[in-house]
Specification:
- With 305 residues, the protein is of the alpha+beta class.
- It contains 9 helices and 12 strands.
């Protein structure tokens, strides 16, 4: 490019270029006023929504029903409070009118507070009675056999606090204390056989008298507090001895009969015909010996392990 051409303005240079290529400088160049929008691709990422989850507004004043408000706050846990069927170890065969299964539900924090308020055994009986009345349908507390009651309490504990129950057991070999976790749902349960029916009938070995009797119920627990108290009250569980059904005759008979008769009746009365396994085997963490321990009711029974 010559020096004179360099000194020309840009417009002159552009005009000269167009003339050399046969274009008319007077036509000019059409420039669109705005770019044409392209069609969005089907795989285009959608913009993130600016909407946020709505947070419920806190009410300064509440004018509705208290029960409705509490039910609203408990909506996420209401399903855990549902009634559920529980098959009894006795299968209902120990009672005059009871189905094989009853209904149970978890107890609430208010009910747990009552349990923690227990100071004496008498208070404990009343509180557990009230707890079972609130959380059990199909069988009243006083009529329950002790085996059914024991099972019901463990299952209430399971559905209220969880399946794991932590206990401590002393090794019978080295006396060291082992911390064990019992999974309640895995504890074996023996169910009453088809032919089981109360009242039961036995024949005493010495007197050869036939005794009809019923197994102890929750209302009878006061007579089972010690071996001596049980012996003194065995007559209460007998419906008849031989041809006699009067309680004063039955009591007089047990006071006068042989030790072997009394022992045989006591063993028959307390025999485990059904129920939840009361013992568990474990390997001692200290000496490695396999030993057995009863599954106890501890202070932590009605609490999260």
């Amino acid at each position: 490019m010559s020096k004179p051409e360099k000194e020309k303005s840009l417009i002159e240079l552009a005009r000269k270029h167009m003339e050399e290529h046969g274009a008319s400088p007077e036509q000019g160049v059409n420039i669109p006023e705005a770019p044409v929008a392209s069609r969005p691709s089907q795989t285009a990422v959608k913009p993130i929504s600016d909407e946020k989850e709505k947070t419920p507004q806190v009410q300064e004043h509440f004018d509705g029903k208290l029960s409705d408000a509490v039910a609203d706050l408990l909506s996420n846990v209401s399903t855990n409070q549902d009634w559920r069927a529980l098959k009894l170890p006795s299968r209902g065969l120990a009672y005059v009118d009871c189905d094989e299964s009853i209904m149970i539900k978890p107890f609430t924090f208010a009910q747990e507070r009552k349990l923690r308020s227990i100071k004496t055994s008498a208070q404990g009986v009343k509180v557990i009675n009230a707890l079972i009345e609130d959380c059990v349908r199909g069988l009243d507390y006083d009529s329950m056999t002790l085996e059914d009651k024991n099972y019901i309490l463990f299952k209430l504990r399971e559905i209220s606090y969880g399946d794991d129950y932590t206990i401590q057991a002393e090794c019978q070999e080295c006396q060291s204390i082992n911390k064990l976790t019992v999974k309640i749902s895995d504890v074996p349960v023996t169910y009453a056989e088809d032919g089981y029916k109360e009242p039961l009938t036995i024949t005493l070995p010495d007197s050869q008298q036939e005794v009809k009797f019923v197994t102890p119920r929750c209302k009878d627990e006061q007579y089972l507090e010690s071996a001596g108290k049980l012996i003194d009250n065995l007559w209460r569980f007998a419906l008849s001895v031989g041809k006699y059904s009067e309680k004063k005759v039955i009591k007089g008979f047990f006071e006068a009969t042989t030790v072997r008769d009394v022992a045989y009746f006591r063993e028959s009365l307390t025999k485990d015909n059904y129920g939840m396994n009361k013992a568990m085997s474990y390997e001692c963490a200290n000496c490695g010996e396999v030993t057995e321990s009863l599954i106890p009711f501890t202070d932590s029974f009605f609490s999260v392990s």
